[in-house]
Amino acid sequence: MTPMAPRKPDTPDEPGPTSSAAPSPEGRVAAKAQPGAKAKTAARGRDRWRGAPEGAHEWVSFPDTEEERTWMFDVTFLESPWTCIFGRGCQGVLTGPAPELVQGCCSYGAHFTGGKDVRRVVAAAATLTPEQWQFHGRARRPGKRRPDVVVRSKSGDLTTRLVKGACIFLNRPGFPAGPGCALHQAAVARGVPHLELKPDVCWQLPLRRDDEVADDGHVTSIIRQWDRRDWGDGGFEFHWWCTEDPEAFVGRRPVYVELADELVAMVGKKIYKRVVQYLDARTEALGGPALPPDGSTAGPAPRAVTGNGRAARPSTPSPVRLPHPALRRPAT
Length: 332
Fold this sequence. Notes:
The protein is of the alpha+beta class. Among the domains are: 1-6 and 56-85 and 205-237 and 249-299, no CATH class; 106-201, no CATH class. Helix content is 23%, strand content 12%. The chain has ten helices and ten strands. It has helices spanning 37-47, 75-78, 115-125, 136-139, 182-190, 200-204, 255-258, 260-267, 269-286, 325-328; strands at residues 59-63, 69-74, 150-152, 158-160, 162-163, 166-167, 170-171, 180-181, 207-213, 219-225. The chain has a four-stranded mixed sheet. It has a two-stranded antiparallel sheet with strand order 3-4. Helix 8 packs across helix 9 (269-286). It is globular, with a radius of gyration of 23 Å.
């Protein structure tokens, strides 16, 4: 399935979803310092989510107040510290590890979402210079006014051309401007969002939007992480994929903040604001990231003890944020 074309941003605001954080238990007595209590608390925090099924994610859904649509968001991925590690440990998407090629996920070219996507990328390519784009000469064919960067497959799909085993826009190691997408590098140099120049699928990764239409016409729009299966059968032949490896979950901000521009382009400003309101409320109720850099699990305050040293029984369960599956794997 090809990625969904981005939805045009909306403008008016609307209330966000409510948070269902549990209140602090009444009658809780302040915990006394105990030898090794910090280590025990950290271990107990990590154990809180041990019962989660392998690969489990948390989700939030809410109705769109202006359309016959329900929105569903992958909370676990949006709260995670995933970040792109292109050129910083990314092993690529070939059948074996190839970090030295610095191809990232550009080895097979980009599938366009439609004519509008094609026209925008071709127009952007026409503005690139030979200093910015290694294969500028390969794209400029004699007698053609527009850059020759698009091909149509036997199945009818439109994709970017491949040159020397990867996307024509991918500058390779040794090029003076450095390895990486020429469109992305041009966007950074111009100070504009890279989604203005790159193909839709390229700026959406590692996010994906799926629209499912019920028999009655109601639409469920799902925003989630991009998985191997989304590449088709070939995805399962990849040696490595970034949303599965903890090495890619080293960002300083959660995905819903890090990829704010991308999310707004995919769902619109109003819906994005509702999601942010909900996720911010979760952070306030549950604490910081699910797995801080020190390896402990942030969340509600540790269970208190009474004067006789016994654990005080809370009146309600303490909610716990579920870490991303890539971060729940046992250490090897």
